[in-house]
Amino acid sequence: MSDHIVKTYDEELDRISNSIVQLGGFIEDQLARAIHSLVHRDSDLADSVVDDDKKADELEEDINNQVIRILALRQPMAVDLRLITAALKISSDLERIGDHAANVAKRAHALNQFEPVKPISAVSRMAQIVQKMIKDVLDAFLERDSERAMEVWRRDEEVDEMYNSLLRELVTYMMEDPRNISPCTNLLFVAKNIERVGDHATNMAETINFLVHGTNITENRPKGETDAIKLQNIPPKNN
Amino acid sequence: MGQQVDNHINISGRIRMQAKNIDVFYGDKQALNKINLDIAANQVTALIGPSGCGKSTFLRCLNRMNDTIDSCKVKGDVTLDQRDIYSRDMDVVELRARVGMVFQKPNPFPKSIFDNVAYGPRIHGLAHNRQELDKIVDLSLKRAGLYDEVSERLNTPGTSLSGGQQQRLCIARAIAISPEVILMDEPCSALDPIATAKVEELIDELKEHYTIVIVTHNMQQAARVSQYTAFFHLGEIVEFGETEKIFTNPAEKRTQDYITGRFG
Question: Is the pTM of the predicted complex or chain greater than 0.90?
Fold first, then answer.
């Protein structure tokens, strides 16, 4: 969508798209390193993820400034306006994902104080799905491909379900042995953070759909059962 | 380029004017091609499009201003409250009283502020005595948002006012004869941003009493003041719809290219 009469306008819009891709790439990396630090019990790596989170804030800030400048100078219309608002929303979702990655890294550091707990592998599987969602949604943004975005949107249900089954599993562990409570609680927060990343990917998919078509999705979001419902279904343990 | 676009949209509320299959020729050159457009009552309809696309020509069809151009030929029907304005029994002077016009450059008469506004009511015999005339002039100046600025000097020449005030004086002059429709041909293009903002504010207030059709090159202005927008290109209407839809999510690529500055 280039070829404005005013060429610098094209350059400004391209720069915003590039900044989103840059922020997206950085966030993907942060999330991957956070998960790696969790699985491989690497506290140093975890700490560096936490440290680097401020870079995500800076990149988001830069996108915000670009958006405000274009709004003021160009008064974008139609598809340009949609790109500008999408950039604002997507950068905010990405920044939040960065926060979740930093949280995962903090928990990873804390978890390293304990013996390894088994459900880590399930968390890592869940993280893989979410990482693929982020990658696909960023590709969908780059290619303005709403089909691909919607495909990500539908995948979030799977993440919610994995989170719920993981929650059950962790609660069962905790009930088996009170010494598991500390590590399992930390792991539960990790899982929740990853589940929230999936929600942000879903938000971004909706934004991309709006960017491409100019209309909102009318379907309801696919949602797994809520935590509260799931917990009620866990049978009490008989001693 | 020649494809016909279905511009039928549901206008909520009454339709004041309707154009059906309008063709306009200047000599051999066709300026408008099969224009169909409904003008909603008490709403602002904006006509946008690049220079030479026919939007001003179309505006001038709505009060038969094109009659004054010898080489100009208009085909098709235009109705005002279901009455054909091109029929033989339509009195053109009465028509132009009901469908007033404001032009690009303010053009007050070389008379006092009072006489500028009183001119129309006088020749149309709308006032029976001086009090009634005073009332019409005051009300028109108030509705045009000019009263407070000129009430102390109604006898000074209209041409002594600033450009923005002159344009509002012309609007007061147009509304003094109680028109139903006001046509505005780029009413702000000769005004500074502050005067423009005042006229835009005025347009918003005027639609309570009048139906307004405005031609503008300023896309943001069209987006701000109008409820419906028609995009003209090469003598055709490419797209007509609710303003919000046209400016956020136009259906036609040509509309999108024009409003986002990609034309050419």
Answer: no
